[in-house]
TrEMBL record:
Signal peptide: none annotated. It is a multi-pass membrane protein. Residues 294-304 have a biased composition (Low complexity). The lineage of its organism: Bacteria, Bacillati, Actinomycetota, Actinomycetes, Streptosporangiales. This is Probable membrane transporter protein. The chain crosses the membrane at residues 72-92, 98-116, 180-198, 204-225, 232-250, 262-281. Residues 305-315 have a biased composition (Pro residues). Its main location: membrane. The keyword Transmembrane applies. It is found in: Cell membrane; Membrane. GO terms for cellular component: plasma membrane.
Amino acid sequence: MQTLLLLGLVGFLAQLVDGSLGMAYGVTSTTLLLLIGTNPAAASATVHLAEIGTTLASGVSHWRLGNVDWKVVRRIALPGAIGAFAGATFLSSLSTEAAQPIMSGILLALGVYVLVRFTAWGTPRGRLGQPLRRRFLTPLGLVAGFVDSTGGGGWGPVGTPALLASGRIEPRKVVGSIDTSEFIIAVSASVGFLIGLGSAGVNLAWAAVLLIGGVIAAPIAAWIVRHFPPRVLGSAVGGLIVLTNVRTLIRSELVVVPSAAQTAAYTVIALVWAGCVAWSLRAHFAERRLAAETPAAADAADAPDAPPAPAEARD
């Protein structure tokens, strides 16, 4: 019962992050599952099974709101599914001892990316441009799908920034298209894990609890995204992912790190993490001041000129 409560909390927290940032559900939930001692392949399989439900609901919502570019979905989903299936079968073939540091290394890299992305540049932005081509979307889907399965997450952190950086699709359609296509990725990865691990390797009850926790968190995440600065939340979550996965790597049998060095590493990471959150807070308040000043300056510039003084006053 205690494990199920922890998993429900994991799903709840992961959905809060994903609903507020538009990415990192898989990265956050898999990191937390590893933290409570879940087998790496089983952790990724459980998360992807839960994502079948969450991504389907998200995709339908985006479709109804007109946030989906179906050309992008068609061109990125199939290679993404191939990459996800390949990553799932690859991870399933590894022993737990070999898989855990590999997955933690991928999660650490994604955590560093999220931390730097939101600390240095804030919320990703894009601009409307020309249609995206297949030669760009196909390799992107393959890489993002493979990373998503082997790392337990990564479709959003890899795919969303790449589409935004291309400058060829509206930001709302970037999020909608990535979320909608992720349903296919989750299904493909789940099939790969079921083939590689068998049904005995995946706990359906865990996936269900993760899904329930995510559903409960969804409306709260919608409130957070309106009241809590995404830039600060991204820095906070990125630091959490980095810290927990560095801990996993240090405790693995691949390297032997003295206790004094472990303490020093955790201290440095905590200080950098605190500095990043502080920097994001400072940048957020600076952006708010600029946004408050810009409309006033624009209103002053658009104000009609004062009428000319009467001739008597000019004499």
